[in-house]
């Protein structure tokens, strides 16, 4: 199975907690003004990569805490990302998903929900340039939320992670 990528980062410490392998998907329909990755917007841009090659890179690094799905918009490439996430879960790595869609929009779409269910943390919402802050943990603008996916699904409401006075996530 192949996925269209903007790129990957083998050892990120800014795309979620711990050491992460970040997958930047190609294609985004949101076109947020001030987007950090505007080159990732064209649906036919980037390059095709074999999902098993990505998994080999992930499993080749025993220091990883998890993977991050970013973009572009990951919700536009659900099937290859579900395959990757299902394999990653077998190795007990956590999964962070960035999406311009809100949690509420995602859970109302069964296809998007099928990918969300595999994740641990969701950074949701469009990037809003007027709400930009460099002080936000893992987010670009203050409207975006850090959501505990599994607790939110279990409780039937959005459960956000709490950030302590040191800028760390309280679990």
TrEMBL record:
Its EC number is 1.97.1.-. InterPro entries: Aldolase_TIM, NrdG, Organic_radical-activating, Radical_activat_CS, rSAM, rSAM_sf. The keyword Metal-binding applies. Its cofactor is [4Fe-4S] cluster. CDD domains: Radical_SAM (cd01335). GO terms for molecular function: 4 iron, 4 sulfur cluster binding; [formate-C-acetyltransferase]-activating enzyme activity; metal ion binding; ribonucleoside-diphosphate reductase activity, thioredoxin disulfide as acceptor. It catalyses: glycyl-[protein] + reduced [flavodoxin] + S-adenosyl-L-methionine = glycin-2-yl radical-[protein] + semiquinone [flavodoxin] + 5'-deoxyadenosine + L-methionine + H(+). Keywords: 4Fe-4S, Iron, Iron-sulfur, Metal-binding, Oxidoreductase, S-adenosyl-L-methionine. Belongs to the organic radical-activating enzymes family. Activation of anaerobic ribonucleoside-triphosphate reductase under anaerobic conditions by generation of an organic free radical, using S-adenosylmethionine and reduced flavodoxin as cosubstrates to produce 5'-deoxy-adenosine. This is Anaerobic ribonucleoside-triphosphate reductase-activating protein. It comes from Candidatus Erysipelatoclostridium merdavium. The lineage of its organism: Bacteria, Bacillati, Bacillota, Erysipelotrichia, Erysipelotrichales.
């Amino acid at each position: 199975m192949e996925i269209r990528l903007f790129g990957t980062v083998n050892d990120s410490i800014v795309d979620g907690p711990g050491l992460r392998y970040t997958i930047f998907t190609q294609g985004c329909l949101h076109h947020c003004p001030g987007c950090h990755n505007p080159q990732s917007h064209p649906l036919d841009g980037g390059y095709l990569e074999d999902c098993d090659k990505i998994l080999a890179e992930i499993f080749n690094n025993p220091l990883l805490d998890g993977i991050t799905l970013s973009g572009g918009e990951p919700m536009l490439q659900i099937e290859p990302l579900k395959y990757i996430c299902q394999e990653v879960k077998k190795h007990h790595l956590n999964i962070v998903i960035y999406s311009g869609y809100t949690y509420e929009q995602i859970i109302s779409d069964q296809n998007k929900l099928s990918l969300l269910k595999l994740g641990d943390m969701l950074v949701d919402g469009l990037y809003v340039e007027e709400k930009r802050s460099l002080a936000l943990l893992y987010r670009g603008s203050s409207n975006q939320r850090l959501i505990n996916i599994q607790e939110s699904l279990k409780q039937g409401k959005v459960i956000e992670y709490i950030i302590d006075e040191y800028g760390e996530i309280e679990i």
